[in-house]
Amino acid sequence: MKKLLTLVLALVLVMGLAANASALTIAFSQIGQESDWRTANTDDVCAAIEGHEGWELVYSDGQQKQENQIQALRNFITQGVDYILFTGVVTSGWDEVLTEVNEAEIPLILLDRIPDCADKIDYVAAFGGDFPLEGRRQVQWVGEYMKSIGRDTEDVNVAIMEGTTGADAQVGRTEGNLAAMEDYPFLKVVAQNTGNFTRAEGQALMESWLKSVDKIDVLIAQNDDMALGAIDAIKAAGKVPGKDIIIVGCDSVKAAFEAIVAGEMNATIECNPLYGQFLVPTIEALEAGETFDKTIVHPDEGVFDMDGGIQVEGTVSVKAADVIDERAY
Ligand code: AHR
Questions:
Q1: Under 8 Å CB-to-CB from 150, ≥6 apart: which residues?
Q2: Is the fold of 2-129+274-287 the same as that of 131-271+302-326?
Q3: Can you give the pTM of this predicted structure?
Q4: Are 38 and 226 in contact (CB under 8 A)?
Q5: Residue pLDDT, tens place only, 171-208
Q6: Who contacts 127 (Cβ-Cβ below 8 Å, separation ≥6)?
Q7: Which helix (H) or strand (E) holds 144?
Q8: Å from CA of 255 to ligand 1 middle
Q9: Would you say the CB of residue 134 lies under 6 angstroms from ligand 1?
């Protein structure tokens, strides 16, 4: 009886090891957890991998440090994972480690922020935000809204709160912000600095601007978290956010919808964090032997605001209150 039990236990162990050995290991090097967008992105990607039969997730949080992400990528290589999902905290400085990933012949999938060496390395698929378009839409929303209320005949002072310096999302949105400004000469940039994509730094930067800048009519915040932090600073200074200062964010997280419905924020440009819907069919297809070209796929994205009906590039804004209940993140 004892021998039989030992045999059964050994069998269970061997079967368990075999099942584990045959699981597809998918490693994800994430940037950190700086914003509601990032949390939604992490949750969505991890759930998509973990929820798939036969797939196992190896997750690493870089805590906003490039060196942590480089170390994580090297660990993934040592572990011999089957796929690497990668988004980089900044755009530059990845050439060496991503070449090592290529040399280890681990299929690389780029997500969200695309490294500037993308042309020089191999990757099997890429999904990212169209950051210049998002930046242009922010300014177009402001310009068209100001026209709609007859404020295009006066100078309108704009503060641009940028994301993490050197991040693809900051570089692209700034490029888009500044390019679109040229179509609205009445918009004047009076302040421009980084709030690092976080609520706390958005609040601190707005506090300092309110003390040092004569007049701010509009805040363009390159993500919603910074806009929400700025709202706290504006209220603390005795001003009315959404009225004394028009506020446009980016991401379209639920908290921004709530602020818009409460009249404290005016618009948010969508940046979709839900990449699981692309990743699962892509990895399944790659496993079945399909290949993809190096095109970076951008999710469809919208614009949400107080009243709807503002025309920006490629879309018309939707009233946030009408769709807030359907918001997934
Ligand atoms: O890369 C996407 C950006 O990163 C999101 O706009 C921002 O909220 C996040 O931190």
A1: none
A2: yes
A3: 0.93
A4: no
A5: 999 999 999 999 999 999 999 999 999 999 999 999 99
A6: 109, 110, 111, 112, 275, 278, 279, 296, 297, 298, 299
A7: helix 131-148
A8: 15
A9: no
Residue 264 buriedness (CB in 10 A; 0-12 / 13-18 / 19+)? buried
Above pLDDT 70, what percent of the chain?
94
Q: Indicate which residue's Cα is closest to atom 2 of ligand 1.
A: 169
Which atom, in ligand 1's list, is nearest to the CA of 167? 1
257 touches ligand 1 (CB under 6 Å)? no
* pLDDT digits 0-9 by tens, 70-91: 999 999 999 999 999 999 999 9
Q: Does the Cβ of 35 fall within 6 Å of ligand 1?
A: yes
**For ligand 1, is residue 250 a contact (CB within 6 Å)?**
yes
CATH code for the structural domain at 131-271+302-326: 3.40.50.2300
> Does the C-beta of 36 come closer than 6 Å to ligand 1?
no
Q: pLDDT, tens digit, for every residue of 95-151? A: 999 999 999 999 999 999 999 999 999 999 999 999 999 999 999 999 999 999 999
Tell me how far the alpha carbon of residue 59 is from its chain's centroid: 18
Residues linked to residue 29 through DSSP beta bridges, in sequence order: 60, 86
Domain boundaries, the chain: 2-129+274-287, 131-271+302-326
Amino acid, res. 216 = I
Q: Is any atom of ligand 1 closer than 6 Å to the C-beta of 173?
A: no
* CB 127 near ligand 1, within 6 Å: no
Determine the 3-state secondary structure of 178 from DSSP: helix
pLDDT band, very low/low/confident/very high, at 3 (cuts 50, 70, 90): low
Closest to 36 in 3D by CA, of 312, 299, 228: 228
Q: What is the CATH number of domain 2-129+274-287?
A: 3.40.50.2300
* Ligand 1 atom closest to 112 (CA): 1
